[in-house]
Write a structure and sequence with these properties.
Layout (H helix, E strand, L loop, with lengths): L1 E5 L3 H12 L3 E5 L45 H11 L3 H6 E2 L3 E8 L2 E8 L2 E6 L1
Parallel strand pairs: 1-2, 2-3
Antiparallel strand pairs: 4-5, 5-6
């Protein structure tokens, strides 16, 4: 199955990772230059001094331990953790940074996604 996931925040990252592990072909679209959603320090999402509301024992993906981080990790630590997760070869290869989804429509049981990157439009079926 060819799967499109829009947004490389925490939910998009784990969705793409799990779909890849299940053997699916995945494209993870991210309009910014870095992954992370609001935890991307350059996205303007989370305040610079914001911390996770969950502790280090509960916020991470079950099969990817967070390592030695603060009790309630801040933006830099969460971004570093998410970057480490997306550093896995298959996930990194499936991620399209600086690529914005500008339109999508359902057509005969498929999704048609139009995206743009560096001024180039592309339409794909998922």
């Amino acid at each position: 199955m060819n799967i499109a996931i829009i947004g490389a925040g925490p939910a998009g990252i784990i969705s793409a990772r799990n779909a890849i592990k299940a053997g699916h072909s995945v494209v993870l679209f991210e309009k910014n230059a870095h992954i992370g959603g609001i935890w991307n320090p350059w996205s303007g999402g989370a305040y610079r001094n914001a911390c996770m509301q969950n502790s280090r024992y509960a916020f991470h993906y079950t099969d990817f331990p967070p390592g030695n981080i603060d009790e309630f990790p801040g933006v830099a630590q969460v971004f570093a953790y998410l970057s480490a997760v997306t550093g896995e070869d298959a996930l990194r290869a499936s991620t399209r940074l600086n690529t914005e989804v500008v339109a999508l429509r359902k057509d005969s049981g498929h999704w048609v996604i139009r995206s743009t990157s560096a001024g180039n439009d592309q339409e794909e079926i998922f």
